[in-house]
Fold this protein.
Amino acid sequence: MPLPPLAEQRQIAAFLDWKTRQIDALIARKKELLEKLKEKRIAVITQAVTRGLNPDAPLRASGIPWLGQVPMHWEVKKFSYISRVVRGASPRPAGDPTFFNGDFIPWITVGEITKEERIYLDSTETMLTEAGASNSRVMKAATLVITNSGATLGVPKILSITGCANDGVVAFEDLAEDVDKVFLFYFLRSQTEELRERMKQGGGQPNLNTDIIKALSVPLPPLEEQTRIAEFLTLVTRKLDAMADKVAEAIARLTEYRTALITAATTGKIDVRKETCK
């Protein structure tokens, strides 16, 4: 390792303490902003899918404690009344090359669904073989799905691809004609944290089984209003996501700069002997 005189070592250490404190404080502020953007995203979604876009709309009691009041003209229905709720299936044994890492059909897993905030899932990293597909459940493109087990349960997605889904995924098939799929996506997204908290209370491995999902209540405005709300939320969340992406990029650049600065100072690529560390 490069070893300057002791006095210079101490000067370098003092300089790096000073500069990294500044960078770390800036990164911390950026992370706080990122969390606030995420909180605002969920708040906007929740407000729109439970109260609508008209702040002056008369309200009535929904009869659901966690839901509270809803606009007077909205209905409240259980998922069992508006769709067929089915669970995916995983070929066994897991990892068997007879079933997995093939080229026959996309393999839709919890990890694929939860890795980003986008509405649509349009690709997967792995595929099943034809034998794997025959031991799983095929879910068609345009199907609304949700993760149903583990720490990442309650995350919805709309499939842009036809694929097979594992048993950590539940699909809403044969949706009623008076339901907007994107509106339902946003409603489910607003309920992710609530569902996780409810499932934690049971102890053990959280599991959002099909019976629980069928019994979930959803507030439903008329179809035209559902579509307007879905379009509004798509526009707003796209803007918030773009802002969050910029903040995340800034955090990544600051982290890279911090590492580069330490390397440069401790290898003599920059001279900090005359720097005043305040």
User: Anything to note?
Assistant: DSSP finds eight helices and 13 strands in the chain.
